[in-house]
């Protein structure tokens, strides 16, 4: 998708920023917001695949995946294949989003492209 710069309306007046709301936020609130943002999101497509394939992961497994995806992101990984005991997940590390899911048996016959990292957790 390309966007041409002349498509933007350059003559819209700028809205004044609401700085007072940001200044009243405590460090703890900012930290909590950042921690919440670190949690994995599951796309609608991935949730449908998890449901269709009856793949369930425990909270402990999701937490481990979140930690490893965070480590991978720090190493520069954008899109990763995550292999757990019962599933293969494609996760966009940059956006913390599970893109799709399949069971390990199905994953054996797949070719994964456009990933730049693999996390093996079984």
TrEMBL record:
It holds the Pfam family Flagellar_put. It comes from the Bacteria. InterPro entries: Flagellar_put. NCBIfam families: flg_new. This is Flagellar operon protein. It comes from Metabacillus sediminilitoris.
């Amino acid at each position: 998708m390309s966007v041409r710069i002349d498509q933007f309306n350059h003559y819209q007046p700028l809205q004044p920023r609401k700085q007072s709301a940001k200044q009243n936020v405590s460090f703890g609130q900012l930290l909590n917001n950042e921690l919440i943002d670190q949690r994995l999101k599951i796309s609608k497509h991935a949730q449908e695949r998890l449901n269709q394939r009856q793949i369930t992961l425990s909270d402990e497994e999701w937490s481990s995946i979140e930690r490893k995806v965070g480590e991978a992101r720090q190493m520069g990984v954008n899109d990763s294949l995550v292999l757990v005991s019962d599933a293969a997940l494609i996760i966009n590390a940059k956006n913390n989003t599970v893109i799709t899911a399949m069971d390990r048996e199905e994953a054996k016959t797949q070719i994964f492209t456009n990933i730049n990292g693999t996390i093996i957790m079984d």
